[in-house]
Amino acid sequence: MRLESNKQAWFKDWFNSPYYHLLYKNRDEQEAKNFIDRLLLVLKPTDDATVLDLACGKGRYSRYLAEKSLYVTGLDIAEESIRFAQQFENEHLTFFQHDMRLPYCINYFDYIFNFFTSFGYFETEKDHLKTVVNIGKGLRPDGKFVLDFFNSKKVIQNLKPEEVKTVDTVEFHITRLVDEQGYIVKNIQFEGQDQHFDFTERVRAFTLEDFQTLFGKAGMKIARTFGNYNLDEFDESASDRLILVGCKAGC
User: Fold this and answer.
1) The model's pTM
2) What is the pLDDT of residue 133?
């Protein structure tokens, strides 16, 4: 059962799969919440600020942001994830299924967050640029965006070509490489429910310079960079993350 024949749509199938959530279930939630707490101390949002959590998955961090009295909208392309998240909706929190390549709520949000390497999935620069343009359109004139990505140079330097990871009773066979188009490619094979599954993740290895060019084309600027979830300074050779904070060019 191969589900990655259409490269442009790999994320639709994989992100809707229960095995995606199984493979990544051990992510450090407390680290993520501490990161959000530190980020909010830097951004200093008002209690009534409007926030877009772009590529929100099942909404764990949207819910955490809403607990801070922010008005949060979570968007994700994965229909099953959004259906799950909608059970938690309240006056501070709503969820919608949406493709980030399409505009949503023009000049509406005080903050747009894209957390935990939820960017770089598309096949063309045009689609990545569309997404960044839509981030700009969604922000109010003085709004800010935060994009949290891996530090691609360090990831490539330390790329682990093969790995077997067992989660619960499922044994995931994982291979990794960097392809000729500059994408980090992770192939994931496993057996489940008497079927063989074969998924492939493809994430463009954007560098800081790439993001500066991309956001510049969209009429925005990167004002600050951080290199980890403690919000330490970004170091291209040593940092685990590349966290960008910016705004529209005239802000």
Assistant:
1) 0.92
2) 97
Distance CA 153, CA 234 (A): 12
Contact 70, 92 (CB under 8 A): yes
CB 128 within 8 A of CB 149: no
pLDDT of residue 9: 67
Q: 7-150+206-248, superfamily in CATH?
A: Vaccinia Virus protein VP39 (3.40.50.150)
Distance (Å, whole) CA 232 – CA 219: 27
Helix or strand holding residue 109 (H, E): strand 109-114
Question: For residue 76, what are the β-bridge partners?
Answer: 97
Q: How many residues does the chain have?
A: 251
CB 142, CB 251: distance < 8 Å: yes
Query: Tens digits of per-residue pLDDT, 141-163?
Result: 999 999 999 999 999 999 999 99
Q: Which residues face 191 on adjacent strands?
A: 196
